Amino acid sequence: MGRRAPGRRPFRGPVRGVSPRRPLTVGVGARPGVAEAEVRELVLRTLAEAGQPPSAVAALATTAARAGEPGLTAVAAGLGVPLLAFAATRLASVQVPSPSARVRAATGTPSVAEAAALLAAGPDGELLVRKRKSTPSPGALASATCAVAAARP
Fold first, then answer.
1. Is 121 helix (H, G, I), strand (E, B) or coil?
2. Going by C-beta distance under 8 Å and a sequence separation of 6 or more, which residues neighbour residue 54?
3. CATH code for the domain in which residue 76 is found
4. From CA 21, how far away is CA 124, in angstroms rounded?
5. Which of 1, 70, 113, 144 could form a disulfide with 134 if both were Cys (CB 3.0 to 4.6 A apart)?
6. pTM of the model
7. pLDDT band (50, 70, 90) for residue 58
8. Smallest Cα–Cα separation from 135: which of 25, 44, 33?
9. Structural domain total, the chain
């Protein structure tokens, strides 16, 4: 006892620079009537871009005006996570890297996806993936955006 194998150092805690996987929050902005498949594809593609599995998601978040959208509620249910809803005034109070005047005119906040992801991540939330747009069918406008955040370690 008390001896260690040659060449092995005793455990002194976590390795610096390596942190345990943090729960992720995915903010989603959407047009009314957005299809579940379009939201799901966007969320999974964005998570893959971040190198994160769907199992790392703790919550989806959106604006209160879209909290009842079947496409959003179905994706949250499929991931087994809650769909959190924030008032547009609360979303508008969050500084984001990709604000949109068009989104502000339509929703009352310059950001839904990034702001919702950050709010859901908590007061020390960190944006891991900036806003991404869905891939619509040819000739159509993107119907969804998403961003990924996590609490700072």
1. helix
2. 43, 44, 47, 79
3. 3.30.420.180
4. 16
5. 144
6. 0.83
7. very high
8. 44
9. 1
